DNA sequence: TACCTGTGATACCCGACGGGTATGACAGAG
DNA sequence: CTCTGTCATACCCGTCGGGTATCACAGGTA
């Protein structure tokens, strides 16, 4: 009876599609198949698990408690599977037979900790038998996702912006934060600022980053990347808060003022907790010795 | 070409079996199937990944580098899948429709932190809407495994014995360690001891715990559980080091002597980093307020 | 050398199941 | 009462997972 025969990957993919769309037709389309076999697959899954996952309410579909659990756990499992695929391909694919130099993919928030990254890469390259490092630039908060699904092996993360939950990590650097203001603005003349000073400046409303294709509400300008933000600051339309290392790429129309009470930004090197790769261990050793 | 069609769970199971046995016949037997289809499945897997996983050396099989990667990553993925199955079944299975009280499985090293556990369970039961807690006693080091494959949702772990890598955790308690000696032994008369004092006592060699069915080498007696250890100490054959809370279950033939230089034991409550369960959050809140 | 043994690979067959199309059942909007 | 949108059912087919029988080949062994 309770055979505990494991879920097949395909079933998990089907279920997450339906659970996300809450609509069999759209889910089937997304999966590139017809709707009836999808329905059957979900039914079979529910039968196998002995648990109702979806509530079919004649008009749309909703998740049961168990369905929500499976959606979360299933996503994690699917990530683990694609990570296994990617890392295996990477380990054996490129070079011919064994002996192919190990390759590590390092995910880095574009333009963040640039100097640190330079030093790290230089120091690592100087090591004998160092693995080849591929730098994967990424957006603000996607390092965890990249590590989880195997597109990256190791990442530079920035607390408190990235959560280190679920990863092993080592601290590399701590820095304060600065307010970046239009050079001509009255506040730019100050020696230091507090978060309160800049939280409610009427003529410099905080910019709104695009999140999942949509923008949060508010008065500030809408932006999609850091260059747009830099330009808007230069135009006197907004201000922003950055780690001190951002001074490296400021424009002449920008003025940086230290923030007295902003939480410090801690740069970590982080990797999946179960990693057992020698190449990774070498990189971490190099990083912690910087 | 590079369809990146995901690995099926079955293929992963087959591969890990072969990779562990390094022998197609035995692996097939373990999987309850015949050898030829297993061989074909592995070949197909290698073709799909475009990577050689096993080196067939006419006399036995060995893992390639990519094979080792897939073995590690695949185990993690399989754990994630069985965790998804277990937690989903648990979430929807027991009680009828929704509203069934949440249930959490708490893994605890048997007899460790007993008093803390008592207080935690009492405090939790006093909360309104508290989830039902099932206590799962386990051996010394298996809490991480239980959390990973979903047999448990949360665990009491003891640094530095358990590694917290890959989990979220909160510190609950710190305690010193004690040496537990036969009551009549000369060392038992001391006020305190150091690790050096007890590391090489000829008539009290450290006991050897069974690990994966086998015993490490050495002069000490072989044991399989804590009761056997307690008895051997009472008989004057060995000594042991425990956290202070072990005083609760000492026998009258035992004497506990504080260790001045043993690292403190820190009890944590730990859970999978991706957990999003309200019931779990409630338990953690209760625990940290103790 | 010749043979036996143990190993993984190949050849062939069958039944199960994943997937497609057509259609049904049913609730809600008009 | 019909029309529409939605998921379930019925039925068919091709693929593929699995089994049995057998092959190919390396190492011992007499």
Query: Overall 3D geometry of chain A?
Result: flat
CATH class categorisation of the largest domain in chain A: Alpha Beta
Whole-number mean pLDDT of chain A: 90
Per DSSP E runs of 2 or more residues, the count of β-strands of chain A stands at 12
List low-pLDDT spans of chain A: none
Distance between the termini of chain A: 57 Å
Helix content of chain A: 25-40%
Sequence of strands across the biggest β-sheet of chain A: 4-3-5-12-6
Q: How much strand of chain A?
A: 15-25%
CATH homology group of the largest domain in chain A = Periplasmic binding protein-like II
Order of helices and strands of chain A: HHHEEHEHEHEEEHEEHEEEH
**Quaternary organisation of the protein chains:** homodimer
- Tell me about the largest β-sheet of chain A: 5 strands, mixed
Largest interface: A-B, 51 and 50 residues
Kindly give the count of domains of chain A.
3
CATH architecture of the largest domain in chain A: 3-Layer(aba) Sandwich
Number of helices of chain A: 9
CATH topology of the largest domain in chain A: D-Maltodextrin-Binding Protein, domain 2
Derived from helix and strand composition plus strand pairing, the structural class of chain A reads alpha/beta
Round the Cα radius of gyration of chain A to an integer and report it.
Answer: 24 Å
